[in-house]
Design brief:
Elements: H1 2-24, H2 37-61, E1 70-80, E2 83-92, H3 110-122, H4 127-138, H5 144-152, H6 155-162, E3 173-184, E4 190-201, E5 207-215, H7 220-232, E6 240-243, H8 249-256, E7 261-264, H9 266-274, H10 279-293, H11 298-312, H12 317-325, H13 327-330, H14 338-344, H15 348-361, H16 370-384, H17 395-406
Parallel strand pairs: 3-6, 6-7
Antiparallel strand pairs: 1-2, 3-4, 4-5
Protein name: Mutator family transposase
Region (Disordered): 54-77
Function: Required for the transposition of the insertion element.
Length: 414
């Protein structure tokens, strides 16, 4: 026993010295010729052998199954982060053995490399860039087809996430907006797609994306489907919905959640207004308009809106009429103190999320299909949401104010 221990100690010391030498020389410990590469081969061979033993034992218990036994081994080269490794897969007489650690016809140890590949893809790298990066880092060549196969494996995960159950009060505040992409249609023509995103604050005041849907274009009709789906997934109430000024959007929300207070995005309204004001008047008009939406309270804001009409109504009647027609939903934020006003008077929260998504998708002018868009957004979301671990600023005070205004509709755990 002492000799055995001494022998193992000598082998360990030899491996340690070689590893240190390779490390100091800058050589990869897991690449070709790396000291740890043989260990991975030994592990894989042992694991495959154990899988075969388990398979034969299970078949032996099935009296109806034909008798089976080992029938030699077959070698194949597998690509891993440790480089290319030749493994020996046991064969059986009935050819019924289906190894799980390295499936048949699999030449890449996907479970070994998938996390790295998905991480690179989630940062916006193209398949060609990922392949080049892995080649430089691990001296492993992977085709675009293999990379696509690995990325496609998250499709069920994306669908499961899209259809997950939601809390009944989701949420005190939600922001709804769409982001647009170009996608290859069924006839291979480039088409536009709108991805509908619903960003929310949950009961703890933390951000969470609760919905992601894709459609050919943005419209109130599809938003109605989105909201109906949210309800079917468990949402019973939304306190405040912050939206852009899409026609019919408010009606769609209220048809599903009739008690929701709607705050239309003031900045969208301002941008829409200024487009119809002559360039020579824009600076002065904006100065007057700011007196409306930056007023201290709703009463002052309405006085300034009257002043705006008196001064500009004859010249820009369509613009003034739009503010008057939408005023009840543009001015909802005046019911709250500055902390909440800042959160809800624009859709900046979801637009900020979209800006982060754009950073990831900026190099992809056209996506091959709808699911490829959703997969990349989902992977990017996993990175972005790592920063959503804390409640928004002053959430304790915000929650109390919402409780006072909405009563039992705003649950607070005390």
């Amino acid at each position: 026993m002492a000799k055995q221990s001494s022998k193992e100690s000598a082998e360990f010391q030899q491996m340690r010295d070689l590893a240190l030498k390779q490390l100091l020389s800058g050589q990869s410990l897991t690449g070709e010729g790396g000291v740890f590469t043989p260990l991975l081969k030994q592990f894989l061979d042992s694991a495959l052998d154990a899988e075969m033993s388990s398979h034969l034992e299970e078949e032996s218990r099935d009296k109806k199954a034909p008798k089976n036994k080992r029938n030699g081994k077959r070698s194949k080269t597998v690509k891993t982060i440790a480089g290319e490794i030749e493994v020996t897969t046991p064969q059986d007489r009935n050819s019924s053995f289906e190894p799980s650690i390295i499936p048949k016809r699999e030449t890449v140890l996907a479970d070994n490399m998938a996390p790295k590949i998905l991480s690179l893809y989630s940062k916006g790298m193209s398949l060609a860039d990922i392949s080049e990066h892995i080649k430089e880092l691990y001296d492993v060549s992977i085709s675009n087809q293999t990379l696509s196969g690995i990325i496609d494996r998250i499709t069920p995960e994306v669908k499961l996430w899209q259809n997950r159950a939601l809390d009944s009060v989701y949420h005190p505040i939600v922001w709804m907006d769409a982001i647009h992409f170009k996608v290859k249609g069924e006839d291979r023509r480039t088409e536009s797609r709108a991805v509908y995103n619903i960003l929310a604050l949950n009961k703890e005041g933390k951000k969470e994306l609760i919905g992601m849907y894709i459609s050919e274009s943005e419209g109130a009709n599809f938003w109605l489907q989105v909201l109906t789906d949210l309800k079917s997934r468990g949402v019973e109430d939304i306190l405040i919905a912050c939206t852009d000024n899409l026609k019919g959007f408010s009606e769609a929300i209220l048809s599903v959640f009739p008690a929701t207070e709607i705050q239309k995005c003031v900045i969208h309204q301002v941008r829409g207004s200024i487009k119809y004001v002559a360039s020579k008047d824009q600076k002065e008009f904006m100065r007057d308009l700011k007196l409306v939406y930056q007023a201290m309270n709703k009463e002052i804001a309405e006085d300034e809106l009257l002043n705006l009409e008196e001064k500009w109504g004859k010249k820009y009647p369509i613009v003034i009429e739009s503010w008057q027609r939408n005023w009840s939903e543009l001015s909802a934020y005046f019911s709250y103190d500055p902390m909440i006003r800042k959160m809800i008077y624009t859709t900046n929260a979801v637009e900020g999320f979209h800006r982060q998504i754009r950073k990831v998708t900026k190099n992809k002018s056209v996506f091959p299909n709808d699911m490829s868009v959703l997969k990349l957004i989902y992977l990017a979301l996993n990175n972005i949401s790592k920063k959503w671990t804390m409640p928004v600023k002053n959430w304790a005070m915000t929650a109390q104010q919402l409780r006072i205004k909405f009563g039992d509709r705003m649950p607070i755990d005390l």
